[in-house]
Amino acid sequence: MSAINTMWVLLGAAMVYFMQAGFAMVETGFTRAKNAGNIIMKNMMDFCIGTPLYWFVGFGIMFGSTGKLFGTLDFFTRGDYSAILPDGVPMYAYLIFQTVFCATAATIVSGAMAERTKFISYCIYSAVISLVIYPISGHWIWGGGWLAQLGFHDFAGSTAVHMVGGVSALIGAKILGPRIGKYDSKGNSRAIPGHSLTLGALGVFILWFCWFGFNGCSTVSMEGDAIESASSIFVTTNLAAACATCTTMLYTWIRYKKPDISMTLNGSLAGLVAITAGCDLVTPAGAAIIGIVAGIAVVVAIEFVDKVLKIDDPVGAIGVHGCCGCLGTLLTGLFAKEIGVFYGGGFKFFGIQCLGVAAVILWVVVTMTIVFTVIDKTIGLRVSEREEIEGLDSTEHGLASAYADFAPTSFSGMPLTEPVTGTTPVEKAVPVEVKTTDKITASDVTLTKIEILTRQDKFEALKNAMNEIGVTGMTVTHVLGCGVQKGAREYYRGVPVDIQLLPKIQVEIVVAKVPVEEVVATAKKVLYTGHIGDGKIFIYDVKNAVKIRTGETGYDAMQGTDE
């Protein structure tokens, strides 16, 4: 046994496992908040379901023999695998390393089918991918099957992992259908922005970091030539991702007039997926070119899937993993040192790469079509319209919101004060003394509500100005909206957003003593900049006001308490 090789493989297994967190954050950020809990649950469960199934039979199917099409049915992985184990690496280390790769293939499907898939259906098709779909095609490529015997090269899984997941996502999203409101009556795509680009970006950073383990640790050794190979793989992996990111940013900047953030994040992942097949064979220059090609291809693919095929993929999984997984494998046939087309190796190796990609696509399309159709015709693949609109967090998991601070608070069974029973008059039940006076009350004085919508950065100045003229109370709300300017024209993932809602502050003031004209004049003076977007002031008559604590009404209810 080799301690350093074993540690390297176990480090890779841990890093690839942590990619689950990255995928979870990307998918959560690119979808709506009402489904965040469901996304997290799915990304947790596909790994937890796939792990025992891969141990039960998947590993044997993938590595049990060198048969052309199939390994063996070795239940609970009890056979002799010494012939396929890396030098100095024990069986269990290699088992966990391969298990986390299997889980990655299954989790890719989640994003494309997000926000409208039944949780039970997801668990079932995720299990089938880990149990049969991935192990069989994986055997062809990595287990000594017919593609491996031909010389097909997919070092860390552009095809074996990512394209399998991406093509499965394509079939599933097509059968499932688009989210409600994604396309109008004419078939035009509508933007449905995700709720948190921050989470999406965090997911990409996690995935980029973990990809060094995904690719680098696939050497399964840190001895001899593997030392230099692992170092080279780190460089090519990083270069492809960086070049793809820059390319996507510039391409969307030119195409949409502004650099698209979410698409640029997809560009990073596209570069990582594309380089995964040939990261050990290409030069840094080749890696940079692969990244550039992937950076453009991912945008074209996402737009094609959305606008032409009319397939709703909220996170771009089909473009990132399906398209760029395929593209990266084919480009390996062009840019691989010595055997690639551009290095004088002829077209034989490139032809084998094309054959392997086509065979895996055909395998996944046929099998996953059967799987999704059977699920759809039996227990159903999609949630009801009501459940989709309400959100899967509440309907599938009984969760009001994945964000506790925004969840409605329930005080059921937890009274804040002792309940009032019997017929006790309210003036005695409430511990307050109502001051009386001989003067005539001013309950019939006109009350006026002034509603001010303005820029967020003007609030402090407005608040101070209102305080100076004697306004003692106000209600402030953060809102989104736009006036006659219709907001700035924006694009989300290549789809124009019809009206861009801008962040504003809504300030509500009810006055009785302070003259309305003075409030309006003060607000105009403070808020004026001369530019579009300064805001508006609305003035309403208020019929009455009641102070709950004392029972005072009208003008009296609006006055503070004399101390």
Outline the structure in words.
This protein has 563 residues and is of the alpha+beta class. 55% of the residues lie in helices and 7% in strands. The chain has helices spanning 3-29, 36-63, 91-112, 119-142, 146-150, 158-176, 197-216, 225-256, 261-275, 284-308, 317-335, 348-377, 385-390, 392-397, 426-429, 459-468, 516-527, 554-557, and strands at residues 447-454, 475-481, 490-492, 495-497, 502-511, 536-542. Helix 11 (317-335) runs antiparallel to helix 12.
Secondary structure: elements and pairs:
Blueprint: H1 3-29, H2 36-63, H3 91-112, H4 119-142, H5 146-150, H6 158-176, H7 197-216, H8 225-256, H9 261-275, H10 284-308, H11 317-335, H12 348-377, H13 385-390, H14 392-397, H15 426-429, E1 447-454, H16 459-468, E2 475-481, E3 490-492, E4 495-497, E5 502-511, H17 516-527, E6 536-542, H18 554-557
Antiparallel strand pairs: 1-5, 1-6, 2-5, 3-4
Helix pairs in contact: 1-2, 1-3, 1-7, 2-3, 2-4, 3-4, 3-6, 4-12, 6-11, 6-12, 7-8, 7-9, 8-9, 8-10, 9-10, 9-11, 10-11, 11-12, 16-17
